[in-house]
Specification:
By secondary structure, the chain is mainly α. 50% of the residues lie in helices and 4% in strands.
Amino acid sequence: MRRRRPFDHPLKPFFERSAESLTTALGDASVKGYHATLRRFLHYLGAQHPEVRRLEQLRRDPHVLGWLAQIRAHVPPLAKSTVATQVLYLHRLLEDVAFTRQIPTLTHLLSREDAPRRERKHPRPLLPEQDQRIQQELLRRNDLPSNLLLLQRHTGMRIGECVDLAADCLRPLGPDQWAIHVPLGKLKTERLVPVDSFVCQIVERLQSLRSQSTADPGAFLLPRLRSRETLIRRVRAAFRDAAAAAGFTTRLVPHQNRHTYATEMLRAGVTFPGIMELLGHVSPDMTLLYLEITQPDLQREYHLARSQPRHLVPSTRALSPASSRADLPGLLDATGRRPACPGDVPPLSPRRLRPASP
């Protein structure tokens, strides 16, 4: 096991306290990223600028710009996303230290503009033929990993969320209404994902296979023979095998099921905020990366809007003396419109998904 060499620097306590404050509600990977970034920066200062002993001595040039030049000249070259993440982490650390120690100049040492622009990741939903044939192969195999992958495809969950599902994850919400309870995941949030009868059958099948397993399943829906990471690798390998058996030689990954689900929900009529909730996103920018908007989609939306122009405002009525006021209720009354009531909006209900025939 590789061990980090110990190091000491006069500024280390200040940055470590800020790292602990910033990562309180973050995952393990983010915690490690913050601490790795502060170590690299302080190692650089100790080696190249040993005269820096106090926070007030820090300058953008040469201290911060020199560190930027060092990570950009790294051999082998670091990925743009890695450099951008390190710049963002150090920027937030400097901001927090500036606030706690009351040194405003530290906030100007680094900015987000110093980070390279990340390459835009285009959505990668499966092609319709890929989706259908892979689902048929998973239905044919009908084992634990295959049924879990089908569950992921029809709920849009992350693989890590799927393997963390509890045995009683299926929750009744009303007559013929069910939802999957997704536990705390990547963003430390939990949610309920509406499902149909087909997904209910998948969960029942997983529960049946779970009871036949020789391993102790514990409280999880899927038994873990060794560890969580081993189970995730097993599920990913099952997807690759199913894709190969379906006749696809290009590299396909289970996460594409999540993109496919998001795009399918959009085309089924689920609103953008609804898709964010289904995927468990907190940023609309992230949700946009999951959606594939094609020209047929645009044509359909355009002609639907022209045939049902609900956005048009009725002709303005003359303002009566009683309603001649310049506030919002007065304007709504003048245009013949009224504020929407909570009962006017139907509840979110994704369309029922049908399994492909094996």
